[in-house]
Design brief:
single chain, 143 residues, alpha/beta, Nucleotidyltransferase, domain 5, five-stranded mixed beta sheet, 49% helix, globular
Length: 143
């Protein structure tokens, strides 16, 4: 079963996909939009990716505060998840994404990616971290 991982941001959505066995996550792309609330094309692209990869579930990063509280960004993410669920008909699992962008940034710095080029990759890599941590939790629960 393939799963898509999503990192929802104000103007981008990072996308990752699992392998067919649900063991590893790979980055797919970063979907960009000009305005935060213009989501029609973003949703349409996610629907295309669901079909292309045969995804059966979506994992959406939930940006909680460090103390676990839910803020405005997380509320917007929850609404986006509900919209994607209606559009795709798939289950959308919200997954704690605290520090995934920090980890993605660190990886890019370690790999000597220039500061101005990091924006191209950070959301896709964050989506990989979100999906991989979800997949890892499934493996732990199976043992």
């Amino acid at each position: 079963m393939r799963i898509l991982g999503l990192d929802y941001g104000s103007k981008t959505v990072g996308v990752a996909v699992s392998d067919p066995l649900g063991m590893t996550a790979q980055g797919v792309e970063t979907i960009c939009r000009k305005e935060e609330n213009k989501l029609r094309k973003t949703c349409a692209r996610i629907e295309e990716l669901v079909r292309e990869y045969g995804a059966e579930k979506l994992v959406l990063g939930l940006p909680k505060h460090m103390n676990g509280d839910i803020g405005e960004r997380a509320e917007q993410t929850i609404k986006f998840g509900e919209m994607i669920k209606r559009r795709t008909g798939l289950m959308v699992e919200l997954w704690d994404e605290r520090l995934t962008s920090v980890s993605a940034e660190r990886i890019l710095i370690e790999n000597k990616i220039r500061r101005e080029d990091r924006k191209k990759y950070i959301d896709k890599i964050a989506a990989v971290f979100i999906l991989q941590s979800y997949l890892d939790s499934l493996q732990i629960n199976r043992e």
